[in-house]
Structures are given as C-alpha cells and as structure tokens.
Design brief:
The protein is α/β, with parallel strands linked by helices. It folds into three domains: about 10-90 and about 190-260, P-loop containing nucleotide triphosphate hydrolases (Rossmann fold, 3-Layer(aba) Sandwich), CATH 3.40.50.300; about 275-365 and about 490-550, Rossmann fold; about 375-485, no CATH class. Helix content is about 40%, strand content about 10%. It contains 22 helices and eleven strands. It has a six-stranded parallel β-sheet with strand order 3-2-4-5-1-6, with helices on both faces. The chain has a five-stranded parallel β-sheet with strand order 7-11-10-8-9, sandwiched between helices. Helix 9 links the parallel strand 4 and strand 5 (about 225-230). Helix 3 packs across helix 8.
C-alpha cells in the first residue's frame, strides 16, 4: 500500500464520513503515536464534552497513559476492551479465574488459574514467553487465537475442537464466560459501547485481533467517529490472533489516515537496520519513517551469545552503566535470558522488568511484598548510621521483619519476638533487645553494628535459617556493592523478552538473535508466519535510543539482522 499525503492529526473527526467514520493513526517506533492520540482526546473533550470519549488500550495502565496525567474524562471511560465488555455484561464469573474443578476433572488438560482483575486490566495479557506450556494452557491459547481470528470451526485444529467441546461444557455447567466470550458476546449482543461515547479511541490497535476490532468498529459506527492508533509493523502478538490485516482492512479513504514520520528515539545507524528488516515482510502499510538526527551505533558481537554472556557482553554493559546509561537485554524467549540473569546476580548488578512487575524472576528486588528479601534487608540496615539518613533505633516492626528468618537456636530468647507485637512503631531500646536476643547473640550483633553495615549484613546472613541464604544472596550482594540506592532506586538494567518490553526504550540494547524451534520453523516459511518473526525483532531493534548490540547467535536457528 502506498502512503497517501500526510494529514494533520487536527483534522481527525472533521472529514467526510459518508464512506466511514473510522480514522487511523500510523505511528512507527518513537514517533509519538500515544501523544498524538492523547491530543485528540483533549480536542474531542473540548469540542464534545468531558463524557464524550471512550479510551482503550491493551492494558489499563496504557489506557490511563493515553488519556494523560490530568485526564479530562471519567475513569469508567478508560480501560481495556475486555474490561468494558465485563462491565457491559454485568460482571460475569470468569472461567480462567475459576478452573479448580476443571483441573481436578481434567488433570491432563491443566489450565493455570489467572487473576480476574489483573487480566481485565491487561496485566496478564499476551504474557506468553516460552514455547513450552502445559497442554491445557496451550490448547486454550490456540482456541482463543482461532476465535480471535474469527476462523470457521472447520479450520480449527482437531485437538482444539476436541478441547473446545469439553471447555464449553464446563463453562455452561458452571455459568462461566471466558475472556474470549466477553468479546464475542458483546459483539453479538451490544449495539452501543458502554456510556454511548461520541468518540472511541483505541491505542496499540495492531495488538487487537479481528474479533476485538470488529467489536470496536461495530461500536464506532454508532459514534461520531473512532480512531485506531497503532503500527502494523509492530504486530507481534500473532499467537493471540493479532494480525496486521485486521488493522489494514478494510481500506479507508486516504484523508482518514494520519502518518507520524519523525522518530524521537531511533538514530540513523539503528534506523537503517530496522528499515532493512521490516521491508522483508510480505504485507505492510507503506510509510515514511525518519530517524532522529544523531548517528547512533550498531555493534555486531562475534563472541558472547546468550549461553555465555558474562565476559564479552557483561563487561561492555558495565562500562555503559558507569556512564549512567540505561540498558535492555532482549531475547525472543525467556529461557535464553537465564544465563544472563545468573551472571547479573553473581556480579550484584540490579535488574528488573517494569513491564512485567508480577514476574518475580525478572523483578527479584521488588519491594512490594513486606516479606521479600530486599525488604527485610532494608529493615535490618534502616537504623544503621552508615545507611540511614539519621541515626536511630530499630522500630519493633523492623526487628520482626529481619529476625523472622534467623535460626532461633542460641540467638533468640523464647517468646522474645512476641514482645515486639505490642507497639510495632515503637523504637526498640537496648533493654528490649536484651529481652529478644540471648546475651551472646546480642553482644555479637552490637559488635557487628559498630563495624559498619557490611559487617551487620554479613552477621545476619551467617545466622539465617537453612534455605534463606540463597534467597538473600542477590539483594545482599547489591546492598554490599551499591548501598541503599541499589535496593531502592529503579535499576538501570531491564531484562525481558521482546514481547514484554514493547513500548519501552533504553539507551543501550543487547539483542540476542536466536530463535526457538517453533519460531525457526515459522521463519523458514513464506508470508505471515515469517513476517511475524521479523516484526518481533523489528520491535527489539527499535527499543534502542543510542547503541544496539547484536549478540552472536548460538546456532543456525537465528534471525539474520
């Protein structure tokens, strides 16, 4: 498809609607697609009123970002498409959150239960990271893909059809709807979007499948106009039924298409790699995409693949960290990141994945849980004069936290910890400490405090009960090397699959080109299967703001970038 003349985003909603009232904003990486959609939301509110807009995106967090920090529309008009359907259908019981009986009756088709609220908020959506899944999870995912693509039943795999019969009987018997049912039911039964908005705006529209876009378009026909903001080149959730065709078809008038051209992220050298890659796909919306004026750098590593990252890869990364740069390590599958995570832990380098906060493997330093190892270490060292802003005594709640994992033998007096429960905020006096600890233990504890917080931390770890040494090794190493900020500040290193960081960016990106067996089989085909693999790595390449490292492949199953 050839790109029509560029149209200003300000013209959205003001064109001829005799053929269609749908508009599309095409925003390649870093061109400000979400910002453009946000501006249109504000213009629509100014023109049509504060209750005129419905804003949706792949996650509720993204939808909130879409509406801006000072949102001018009601919170109940912001959310995922699933959450809107859930509300419109009277908040039915969700099958994926109620699989206990299913798993007891079908142990060979085990389905991992999900949190209803997290899934409706999009936080668990498309979180597929590995090609290895439980049979039930895999079949349910394939079922959702077939339904999402609106394929005729006779085109479904035989195993999926057999699974569907059982799954449907289970849902009917227990009065449940699954997440695909929410969209399907609303598509057939709900003519109007909830709250009857005049304007419907969907961001990250390329991530929606055919059934979801059909629902949006049905609702949109009853609105003044609708806007799909996305980038067909970044369609990477094919296993969930997403396809660029769903966003590109049917065609709409040229003056209903808005193209954002100027990237504020991707520099020239990295842009050239991205363009060579994406032009290999068989179908896309042709568009002008301009790099930012800086040169940027692309390095192709001849050694140091995902199996051995500690030397060639980690050493250069530490140099970038010393310069204050942010870093992303990206792979197509999470198992390829395990050696890297081990190396980061060994070297005490903090890392996280802010786009998958629920994944503890990628967020080992998260402080959300009061019982986390990092939180207990902060409680231990929070009163130390070399650590805290001001010297103070431990509060009783802090003592409760870090003493819970101690081996009680010869350390704690019987019933000593119970004395801390009376007033959790009260400072622990030396007299109280003497009632909690055995005398020899208290003496060694105070001696460690006098030597500094590294000695105190080592004292604590040397007295932990069996099993807790390993759990505290990484946060303790971070604290010893980097002090309080290492545990409290957001890490400069992000680790994740390409799918998990979509929408993010970093100064420096390390990209592993390796493919799983399934992805390699796709890449060797023609058309959509191969295109899906290429688009995934296009997204990975375009996360880099300054420097891109293309790591060496571990075998023949790798993408040529």
């Amino acid at each position: 498809m050839r790109e029509p003349a560029e149209r200003a985003p300000e013209t959205i909603g003001l064109r001829d609607h005799s053929q269609t009232n749908e508009y599309r904003i095409f925003g390649p990486p870093g061109t400000g697609k979400t910002r453009s959609a946000t501006c249109h939301i504000n213009r629509s509110v100014d023109r049509l009123g504060s209750n005129s807009v419905m804003a949706t995106s792949f996650t509720r967090a993204a939808a909130i970002e879409l509406t801006g920090r000072d949102a001018l529309i009601d919170p109940d008009r912001i959310g995922t498409l699933h959450s809107f359907c859930f509300q419109a259908l009277g908040k039915p019981q969700i099958a994926e959150a109620n699989v206990g009986e299913w798993n007891r009756e079908n142990p060979r088709l085990w389905i991992t239960p999900v949190s209803r609220d997290r899934s409706l908020a999009g936080e668990d959506s498309n979180s597929y990271e590995d090609p290895v899944q439980k049979v039930g999870d895999r079949l349910l995912q394939q079922l959702n893909c077939c339904r999402g693509r609106m394929l005729p039943l006779e085109n479904w795999p035989v195993g999926v059809r057999d699974f569907t019969s059982r799954w449907n009987r289970y849902k009917i018997a227990n009065d449940l709807l699954d997440f695909s049912d929410l969209i399907d039911t609303a598509l057939h039964d709900s003519e109007l979007a909830p709250n009857k908005p005049a304007v419907i705006i969907a961001d990250e529209a390329q991530d929606l499948n055919s059934m979801q876009l059909s629902l949006l378009r049905k609702w949109g026909r009853h609105a003044d106009h609708s806007v799909l903001a996305g980038d067909d080149d970044q369609t990477i959730y094919s296993w969930a039924g997403a396809s660029p065709d769903a966003m590109l078809d049917p065609d709409i008038p040229a003056d209903h298409k808005i193209f954002l051209k100027q990237s504020q992220r991707v520099p020239r050298a990295i842009h050239a790699v991205a363009e060579r890659l994406i032009r290999q796909v068989s179908r896309r919306q042709e568009k002008t995409y301009l790099s930012r004026p800086e040169d940027g750098r692309v390095h192709r590593l001849s050694s140091g693949g995902y199996r051995s990252p500690e030397y060639g890869i980690l050493k250069t990364a530490e140099n970038h960290l010393a310069q204050g740069k942010s870093i992303m390590f990206l792979a197509s599958c999470s198992y390829m990141l395990r050696p890297l995570l081990a190396a980061l832990r060994k070297n005490g380098i903090p890392f996280h994945n802010p786009y998958r906060k629920a994944n503890g493997f990628w967020n080992p330093l998260r402080l959300g849980s009061a019982g986390s190892a990092a939180r207990r270490i902060l409680s231990l060292l929070g009163a130390h004069p070399g650590w805290a802003v001001t010297q103070r005594s431990w509060e009783c709640r802090e003592l409760l936290s870090w003493t819970e994992w101690l081996a009680p033998h010869e350390l704690l007096r019987a019933g000593g910890r119970d004395l801390l429960l009376s007033d959790l905020r009260a400072p622990a006096s030396i007299e109280l400490l003497a009632e909690v600890f055995e005398s020899n233990a208290l003496e060694s504890l105070l001696a460690a405090c006098a030597q500094g917080y590294p000695a105190l931390l080592r004292w604590w770890r040397s007295h932990l009960a069996a099993g807790f040494q390993a759990r505290t090794a990484f946060p303790a190493g971070v604290a010893l090397q980097r002090g309080a900020h290492g545990l409290v500040d957001d890490p400069s290193v992000v680790v994740g699959t390409i799918h998990s960081v979509k929408g993010g960016q970093a100064d420096v990106v390390y990209l592993f080109p390796d493919l799983s067996k399934a992805a390699d089989a796709q890449y060797r085909q023609c058309g959509p299967p191969r295109d899906s693999v290429i688009r995934t790595f296009y997204v990975g390449v375009t996360r880099a703001r300054e420097t891109l490292y293309i790591c060496s492949a571990e075998g023949a199953a790798a993408l040529s970038i």
